[in-house]
Amino acid sequence: MKQKNIGFAVSLLLALASGLAGQQEFYITLKEGVPATSLALPNFATRSSSVRAKTAAAEIRQVLAADLGYSRIFQLLPEKYYDYIRPIDPSNIFFKDWESIQASILFVGEISEAAGDDVVFEGKLYDVKGGRFIFGKRYQYVMSNLDETVLREIASLTRGRYFRAESNEALARIYAEIDQLERTEVSSVERVDYHEAGLRFLLPAALLLLLEFLLAHTLLRSAL
Fold first, then answer.
1. Beta bridge partner(s), residue 38
2. 168-179 vs 51-71: helix axis angle to the nearest 10?
3. Is residue 98 classed exposed, middle or buried when 0-12, 13-18 and 19+ CB atoms within 10 A define those classes?
4. Is residue 187 a part of any domain in this protein?
5. Domains contained in the chain, number
6. What Å distances lie between residue 121 and 28, 46, 92, 136, 213, CA to CA?
7. Structural domain of 32
8. What is the DSSP code (8-state) at residue 8?
9. Residue 116: left (phi > 0), alpha (psi -120 to 50), or beta?
10. In which band, very low, low, confident or very high, does the pLDDT at 4 lie, cut at 50, 70 and 90?
11. The CATH number of the domain where 34 resides is what?
12. 91 within some domain
């Protein structure tokens, strides 16, 4: 169960980026030196009282939080902040509550169970300051068997590496290992355009020299 939830949550990050198509446009401007956008990620709601659904909600949220933190685009609010406001109600969002704890973006997740071993996840993003819904997606993860032999062969042929996380701890170790991989140096050609600023001083200097020459051979010469 843990393995399925982790794979589902990691793929969620990529799917959310494409889920904006067909929805209203939303932009997050990223500039060097600008602090990360504060994001609230409260505990996911479960539409089932089963232990399986609650465990899935906790594990998916934990992996998603690790991925968002690793992106360095968002700054997750500390867990203790959620104690200062009322519990999240997916059907009735109190934006003033989330604004009071300095959240810019709110991510609301819901977990439910489908037939068989399927897990249904619904995620929604809200603009807290604007008090509006940005977009949402619903996913149903169906259990599948990975052919690790083929995946390892692909990684070997492309001079890459194959990673598989079967727990939250393993995922954290993979991220740490990726950070330590050798980085490729990228060379670039720099072009510098020079602007001659001395011309504005050269012309007056030439005129002064000419004036000095004329005076030396006319008025000043006669005075001497």
1. 75
2. 10
3. buried
4. no
5. 1
6. 24, 10, 19, 11, 90
7. 2-144
8. H
9. left
10. very low
11. 3.40.50.10070
12. yes
Backbone angles phi, psi at 125, to 5 degrees: -110, 140
131, part of any domain: yes
Q: Which residues contact 216 (CB under 8 A, 6 or more apart)?
A: none
Chain-centre distance for alpha carbon 117:
31
User: Is pLDDT above 90 for 219?
Assistant: no
Beta carbons of 40 and 101 less than 8 angstroms apart: yes
Of 66, 65, 64, 44, whose CA–CA distance to 55 is shortest? Answer: 44
- Token pair of 23 as six digits: 């929805």
What is the end-to-end Cα distance of the chain in Å, rounded? 108
Whether residue 208 is contained in a domain is answered as no
Q: Report how far residue 93's alpha carbon sits from residue 106's, in angstroms, rounded to the nearest whole number.
A: 10
pLDDT single digits (tens) 113-139: 877 667 788 999 999 999 999 989 888
Q: How many CB atoms lie within 10 A of CB 156?
A: 11
Two tokens, residue 14:
């990529």
Does residue 109 contact residue 121 with C-beta atoms inside 8 Å? yes
pLDDT band at 105 (very low <50, low <70, confident <90, very high): very high
Q: How many CB atoms lie within 10 A of CB 97?
A: 18
As to burial, measured by CB atoms within 10 angstroms (0-12 exposed, 13-18 middle, 19+ buried), residue 171 is: buried
Tokens 């232990």 locate to: 51
